[in-house]
Design goal:
Helices cover 50% and strands 14% of the residues. The protein is of the alpha/beta class.
Length: 686
């Protein structure tokens, strides 16, 4: 069995991403979409490779039970893959189960490949495979290896699992490895974290005198290192040096500016190692080469010192050639090197030592597994987004000239100098509102990344089906902890809340424009003139309903988000990953997302069957206008508008109106609904 990793997700929430990856593989390798063939290529891509030199697709007539095989030197790996139809995947609450057919197929393939005498009616590629295996086995039986695997985009029946386990034991006695890959393994592989052993480069740091500049201990050392070595290391490896750090370059940092300034003078350069806290590096191993006066670090990661290194680079490049020579000869950096790849220990060090610049609390969570999982999720959906989990991350990677693992700016490009980016601070606020806490989000002051209970609710728990049923049926519903289960929400669930949030914000009318429009209305009606005094304008504005309604709407961003989830759940039921994916796949929404929420691509508020978000916004605004008319005196009498809106009773009363007017508008002829249908009934099928 494969290692299950850290991702905790239900099958139904994993389905959208699994389907997306089938589509991506199909686009890359196939002429037309075929989920069964695409799954075979996906398995090869995730667990083996698809290089022509090694990969051979053989599924079809006379395949001998082998869907694809990998042949390299004297190693042979056989695969049998099973994938249900897309319609079954989309409709399944639980993983589809497969019987032992695939196991029997691969067993017959093993028997055929190992049989030195029999005659088999198989295609040419399988005959060549068998011939090569037999030749290698005859020449060097010790080095010739055979492995087989069964991959299912689902799970095996209990009986099939027992058969697999007994077969695995039997084959092991014959030195044949046998593996099972299930939907969980596929999902985990898509979401695999970068492991320490993936850092496959080394750097050299030089010193002057081993007796004066090096203090050695068993698994770590202190050293006075030439600062120029960090400049060279960054030029060669750039941000690959900082993957385990909790943040990237802070370009506007006063601390960084002081570091750069200190390197602009002869005295400052000579005293730099006294002024600066230094650099902390972890690595797989290091070697002190006394005869070359250098320390070679294998698999290095700068876990504290990003700002120092970047300041060194910026300062050095601004110096004249003569000053650069002085820099190379006189600038040193205090450096601590730790030989450790214990990721938990390193994360503790990162959090404990990154304190020279004021630390945004979200940075201390940036390398936690759930944040990496969310980042991977957003990068693997149909329209990828860059999930920014630490300060300065995207801008730093955007400026890199080196290949960064898991990052291609073209994946996120939405237009000229425009990229699809989601910041985890924005996501926290929008999702918290989406799941029924708009009043608290609107009030503000929440420590999304410091309050552990709040952080867990947003990033480590997901709403149950029961949650959505209660939300949709009860306007006075308040979420309780027992309506959430362990597991990070899907990227599609998060993305829907962000998409709604961006749409609401894009529709707002800035305060100064709202006032200008109101004054123009006053002039047009004759209530105001060019000579009207400020007092006369104020009196007019007090009675301008549209002016005050726009002010109300501008202060209801988070409330609107919750109203969206309320209406969406009333129409589409449980807002799980697949449902959210379908909503976001509507033509207008898909275009809006693709273009990074560009205002020019906003879904229309007209009900034309192409958009869901636009008409819902129009209906909510209609309900808010009715609420304003009904409770105007109460609203105007509030000491502060925002404090009025973050009262839970206010949100509940608006929800009441959303339900009440859903039926009232049935016969209304509005462009945001279908006539003779309630508003909710007007929303298109997905």
């Amino acid at each position: 069995m494969m290692d299950k990793g850290y991702v905790d997700i239900s099958f139904k929430n994993a389905v959208p991403e699994l389907i997306d990856n089938l589509q991506k593989v199909s686009d890359a390798y196939l002429d037309e979409f075929n989920e069964h063939k695409a799954f075979t290529y996906l398995v090869a891509e995730l667990f083996e490779n698809t290089t022509d030199e090694f990969f051979h697709y053989t599924d079809g007539a006379k395949d001998g039970g082998i869907d694809f095989f990998i042949q390299a030197a004297q190693s042979y790996i056989l695969y049998q893959c099973k994938c249900p139809d897309i319609s079954i995947l989309e409709a399944s609450e639980n993983p589809p189960v497969f019987d032992d057919t695939a196991i029997k197929d691969i067993l017959s393939a093993i028997q055929m490949i190992r049989d030195p005498k029999g005659s088999y009616d198989v295609k040419k590629e399988i005959k060549m495979l068998r011939a090569d295996y037999q030749a290698d086995l005859a020449e060097n039986p010790e080095r010739t290896k055979l492995k087989a695997a069964v991959a299912v985009l689902g799970d095996l029946t209990s009986a099939a699992k027992e058969f697999f386990n007994s077969t695995k034991e039997k084959l092991a006695k014959e030195s044949i490895a046998f593996d099972l890959i299930t939907w969980e393994d596929v999902y985990h592989s898509i979401h695999a974290l970068d492991r320490p052993f993936d850092i496959d480069f080394s750097i050299d740091l030089t010193f002057d005198d081993i007796n004066k500049d090096i203090l050695q201990h068993r698994e770590y050392c202190y050293a006075l290192i030439h600062a120029f070595d960090y400049y060279k290391a960054f030029r060669e490896h750039e941000w690959n040096l900082f993957d385990w750090n909790v943040r990237y370059e802070l370009k506007k940092s006063r601390i960084n500016q002081k570091i750069v300034a200190s390197l602009k003078t002869d005295k400052g350069r000579k005293r730099f190692h006294h002024y600066n806290n230094g650099v902390l590096i972890s690595c797989r191993s290091y070697q002190i080469k006394k005869n070359k006066s250098l320390i070679r670090l294998i698999g290095p990661q700068i876990i504290n010192g990003c700002q120092t290194v970047r300041s060194i680079c910026n300062a050095y490049e601004d110096l004249s050639p003569e000053e650069q020579k002085h820099f190379r000869e006189n600038v040193y950096v205090q450096t601590k090197i730790i030989q450790s790849m214990d990721i938990d220990f390193i994360m503790e060090l990162v959090e404990a030592t990154n304190d020279q610049n004021p630390m945004n609390p979200r940075n201390l969570k940036s390398n936690h597994s759930e944040q990496k999982n969310i980042k991977k999720s957003f990068s693997t959906i149909k329209t990828p987004f860059f999930y920014q989990r630490k300060d300065g991350e995207f801008d730093s990677l955007l400026a890199t000239h080196q290949k960064m693992k898991g990052f291609r700016k073209s994946d996120y490009k939405a237009g000229k100098n425009c990229y699809r980016i989601i910041d985890n601070q924005d996501l926290a606020r929008s999702w918290f509102s989406f799941i029924g806490h708009s009043d608290k989000a609107l009030k503000g002051g929440l420590q999304y990344f410091e309050d552990e209970e709040l952080y867990d609710l947003i990033f480590k728990k997901q709403p149950t089906d029961e949650f959505w049923h209660y939300m949709s049926s009860n306007p006075y519903f308040e979420p309780s902890t027992d309506m959430f289960e362990i597991g990070t929400p899907s990227a599609y669930q998060y993305l829907l809340s962000i998409c709604v949030d961006k749409y609401i914000f894009s529709r707002r009318i800035p305060m100064y424009i709202n006032k200008k429009m109101a004054i123009e209305r006053g002039k047009k009606s004759g209530a105001l003139s060019e000579k009207s005094s400020d007092e006369e304008v104020s009196v007019y504005l007090k009675d301008d309903e549209e002016y005050w309604l726009n002010i109300l709407i501008n202060n209801m961003r988070e409330v609107y988000i919750e109203l969206f989830s309320f209406i969406l759940s009333r129409r589409y039921g449980v807002l799980d990953a697949l449902t959210c994916q379908k909503i976001l796949s509507m033509p207008a929404e898909a275009e809006y997302i693709k273009n990074a929420f560009d205002k020019k691509c906003m879904p229309s508020q007209k009900q034309d069957g192409n958009s869901i978000i636009g008409p819902i916004y129009a209906y909510i605004s209609y309900c808010v206008s009715q609420y304003f008319q009904k409770y105007r005196a109460e609203i105007e009498g509030a000491a502060r508008l925002k404090s009025y809106l973050w009262n839970r009773k206010t949100v509940n009363k608006i929800k009441d109106l959303v339900i009440e007017y859903d039926k009232k508008v049935k016969t209304y002829d509005r462009d945001w609904k279908v006539i003779n249908k309630t508003f909710v009934e007007s929303l298109p099928d997905i």
